[in-house]
């Protein structure tokens, strides 16, 4: 791997383990898997992030039935303090930063920054906490502080990878310092671009972060650039995604469909890097149960493999059912189809789609269907919390068929993607950038039942590796709010039809079901692994800058 450029990977969050909660959701889990595979493959990638004092929310149902957000302190037993110090400026004040190196969970190098003094810890108090000023301060620490930390540590960097727009101020710092030469801003941009790549994750224009130039100046996020210079980089107001696209020589979406969506979204941005697609992957040693791998050892007859795979699945299903009983007092049946749905509680993901038609739901219950839900909403996302409220009410109305598990985290995610029978995903296409939970399920022999969005158009062979919900006609993609009710009804009807006509009949035929499980595993083990993803980055993204070294 030494022939590849040496990469500095910047991300706001990292999901390494449930006991180290410096992650919020999919972006962090992806970054954690990225760094795990980087270590496994000995790829020259160094990670940079922030140490969050309280991490993300622990979200539970309170005594009154509403969701409560709790913020336990992040343990420091997984990190080692480094004997270095860097400094950034926030609101006109110099803020010294100390650095930690992650010592557990990964074999690659990952450094985390936080303010040295207690009075400055408001910046890293809570992952994604606070308002715009807090976010800007956090992004100054990540981007500006991260570049300065690597310099102080003497880490050689050929290429800077900004994973989402949060890291863009690293680019401004590199421009400010003329790291790669040039006198005018245009010259410095031209010299910098060969050394920057950018990954975009958000296929909704409104979800891409922007900042007013006046606020950037107030927070010292402008780094001394004039408004006109900042506008050249990120526009006015300053778009972190536009800046990422203009600072980079190459950008990527996180699935083939998302690459198409991103190219369409940002087609009018002058000076933007070309956008390709690198489909996300998940770290198989973390997410695939060892019992699944053991069942499919090649030197065993097919019949024995099938029997052991089914047995392993039933054991994992029983483990999940025990966990559900311990958490809720409800004991689901191991011999009935168990559909799993667990992800961030964003409204476009439509967690309530399956439960919104009581008559159709009753038919599914009569045929033995059970559903387990989990999810977590951003603490200030009232719509997301209302969505979770619907799931909780449904579990109270149908206590023998529906359960909701609170405080979704990595540990619970692993149990669900190993112990359910079918993994459900029904976002409004094409708003799901990737959706890696389905990859984890697939690796454990859990077939996906999904809208053809995110990664699933690449993995779906209908009736073989899982099932699609409807087709992929771009003219049906729903952005018009007035049309959403029609699209939701159509997709709900299609979903119920697939479950009744295809999923349930397949589940009742053991040999057929096990063949789908096997196909799901075979489809996902390499193609949707983070090892494959890293190799794609090395050859298609990082390697494309080799000539710039």
Report on the architecture of this protein:
The protein has 549 residues and is α/β, with parallel strands linked by helices. It has 2 domains: 7-59 and 67-282 and 532-548, Glycogen Phosphorylase B (Rossmann fold, 3-Layer(aba) Sandwich), CATH 3.40.50.2000; 284-528, 3-Layer(aba) Sandwich (Rossmann fold), CATH 3.40.50. The chain is built from 19 helices and 19 strands. The strands form 4 sheets. Strands 5-6-7-2-1-8-9-12-13 form a 9-stranded mixed β-sheet, sandwiched between helices. Strands 16-15-14-17-18-19 form a 6-stranded parallel β-sheet, sandwiched between helices. Strands 3-4 form a two-stranded antiparallel ribbon. Mean pLDDT is 95; it is low at 545-549.
Q: Low-confidence parts lasting 5 or more residues at pLDDT below 50?
A: 545-549
- In what range is the share of β-strand residues? 15-25%
Strand order of the largest sheet: 5-6-7-2-1-8-9-12-13
How many β strands by DSSP? 19
Distance from N terminus to C terminus (CA atoms, Å) equals 15 Å
Quick synopsis:
40% of the residues lie in helices and 17% in strands. It is of the alpha/beta class and 549 residues long.
Write the layout of secondary structure elements.
Layout: E1 7-10, H1 26-40, E2 45-50, E3 58-61, E4 67-70, E5 79-90, E6 93-102, E7 109-115, H2 132-153, E8 159-163, H3 169-176, H4 185-192, E9 196-199, E10 210-211, H5 213-219, H6 227-234, E11 238-239, H7 240-247, E12 250-253, H8 256-265, E13 275-277, H9 284-287, H10 290-295, H11 302-328, E14 338-344, H12 358-366, E15 370-376, H13 382-397, E16 402-405, H14 410-419, E17 422-425, H15 437-443, E18 448-450, H16 456-459, E19 466-468, H17 484-507, H18 510-524, H19 530-542
Parallel strand pairs: 1-2, 1-8, 2-7, 8-9, 9-12, 12-13, 14-15, 14-17, 15-16, 17-18, 18-19
Antiparallel strand pairs: 3-4, 5-6, 6-7, 10-11
Helix pairs in contact: 1-19, 2-3, 11-14, 14-15, 15-18
């Amino acid at each position: 791997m030494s022939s590849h450029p040496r990469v500095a990977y910047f991300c706001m969050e990292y999901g390494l383990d449930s006991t180290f909660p410096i992650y919020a959701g999919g972006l962090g889990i992806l970054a954690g898997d990225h760094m795990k595979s980087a270590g496994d493959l000995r790829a020259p990638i160094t990670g940079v992030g922030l140490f969050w004092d309280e991490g993300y929310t622990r979200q539970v149902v309170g005594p009154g039935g509403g969701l409560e957000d709790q913020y336990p302190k992040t343990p420091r037993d997984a990190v080692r303090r480094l004997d270095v110090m860097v400094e950034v400026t926030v609101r006109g004040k110099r803020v010294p930063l100390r650095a930690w190196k992650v010592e557990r969970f990964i074999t690659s190098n990952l450094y985390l920054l936080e303010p040295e003094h207690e009075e400055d810890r408001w910046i890293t108090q809570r992952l994604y906490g606070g308002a715009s000023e807090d976010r800007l301060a956090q992004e100054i620490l990540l981007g500006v502080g991260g570049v300065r930390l690597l310099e102080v540590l003497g880490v050689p960097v050929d290429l800077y990878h900004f994973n989402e727009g949060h890291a863009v101020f690293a680019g401004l710092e590199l421009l400010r310092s003329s790291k790669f030469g040039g006198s005018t801003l245009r010259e410095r941009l031209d010299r910098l671009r060969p050394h920057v790549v950018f990954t975009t994750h958000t296929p909704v224009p409104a979800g891409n972060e922007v900042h007013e130039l006046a606020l950037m100046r107030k927070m010292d996020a402008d780094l001394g650039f004039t408004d006109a210079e900042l506008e050249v980089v990120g526009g006015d107001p300053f778009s972190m995604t536009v800046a990422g696209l203009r600072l980079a020589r190459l950008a990527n979406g996180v699935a083939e469909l998302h690459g198409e969506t991103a190219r369409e979204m940002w087609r009018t941005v002058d000076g933007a890097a070309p956008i390709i697609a690198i489909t996300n992957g998940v770290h198989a040693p973390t997410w695939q149960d060892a019992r699944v791998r053991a069942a499919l050892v090649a030197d065993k007859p097919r019949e024995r493999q099938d029997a052991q795979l089914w047995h392993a699945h039933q054991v994992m299903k029983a483990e999940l059912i025990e966990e559900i009983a311990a958490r809720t007092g409800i004991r689901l049946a191991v011999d009935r189809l168990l559909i799993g749905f667990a992800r961030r509680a964003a409204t476009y993901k439509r967690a309530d789609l399956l439960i919104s038609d009581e008559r159709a739901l009753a038919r599914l219950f009569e045929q033995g269907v059970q559903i387990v839900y989990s999810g977590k909403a951003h603490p200030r996302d009232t719509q997301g919390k209302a969505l979770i409220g619907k799931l909780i009410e449904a579990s109270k109305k149908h206590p023998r068929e529906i359960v909701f598990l609170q405080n979704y985290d990595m540990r619970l995610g692993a149990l669900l993607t190993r112990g359910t029978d079918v993994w459900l995903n029904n976002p409004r296409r094409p708003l799901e950038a990737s959706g890696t939970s389905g990859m984890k399920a697939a690796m454990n022999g859990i077939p996906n039942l999904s809208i053809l969005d995110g990664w699933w158009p690449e993995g779906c062979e209908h009736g073989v590796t899982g099932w699609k919900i409807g087709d992929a006609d771009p003219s049906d993609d729903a952005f018009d709010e007035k049309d959403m009710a029609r699209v939701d009804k159509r997709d709900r009807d299609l979903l119920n039809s697939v479950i009744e006509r295809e999923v349930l009949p397949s589940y009742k035929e053991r040999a057929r079901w096990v063949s789908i499980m096997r196909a799901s595993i075979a489809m996902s083990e390499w193609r949707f692994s983070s090892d494959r993803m890293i190799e794609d980055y090395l050859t298609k993204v990082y390697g494309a800058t080799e000539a710039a070294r």
